[in-house]
Please model this.
Amino acid sequence: MVATSSLSSKNSTCIAELIHQGFHHSDITDFDYWDYVVPEPNLNEVVFEERTCQTLVKMLENCLSSSKRTKLHCSKVLVPEKLTKKIAQDVLRLSSTEPCGLRGCVIYVNLEIGNVCKKLDQIVYDPSIVPTFELTLVFKQDCCSWPSFRDFFTRACFASGFRRTLILSPGFRLIKKKLYSLIGTVIEEC
Model:
């Protein structure tokens, strides 16, 4: 829905001038009123949040990359398109209610294969800040896609040798634990 009015320029200066010149407040419609009351989105905040999200995506990708040979013992990790961006957005959303935001977060990265949860790494966005909450991220191995190739790609990923490929599921789990609160643990599965 688009609301228009007879005013050519909708800004606070224009309204102030009209009121000063005798244009009465009653002549301003409800639609005009909300144009001045509802703040414009701050472009700097949007750009900053996008940069923070991209930084977090890189940190997640680096974590998976460094873990593939050291802890996963495979040559490739196939990640669904936009999975790391979705995780980064969820991490930012869960961080938004915290006193220090993402800067006060420690992210423990794990991989769930069957009933076993393997610890991969931890990500600290700002090591100079004492953490106020923890997020445990659990990636899941994909055991449902590409059924005819599943055994070929995923068998013996944890055996010696680096010729194996690990396929991640588009699903993941984020568990939030506040460190200095009576609220306790908030579990959110995505």
Q: What stands out?
A: The CA atoms of residues 27 and 157 lie 71 Å apart. The two ends are 32 Å apart (CA to CA).
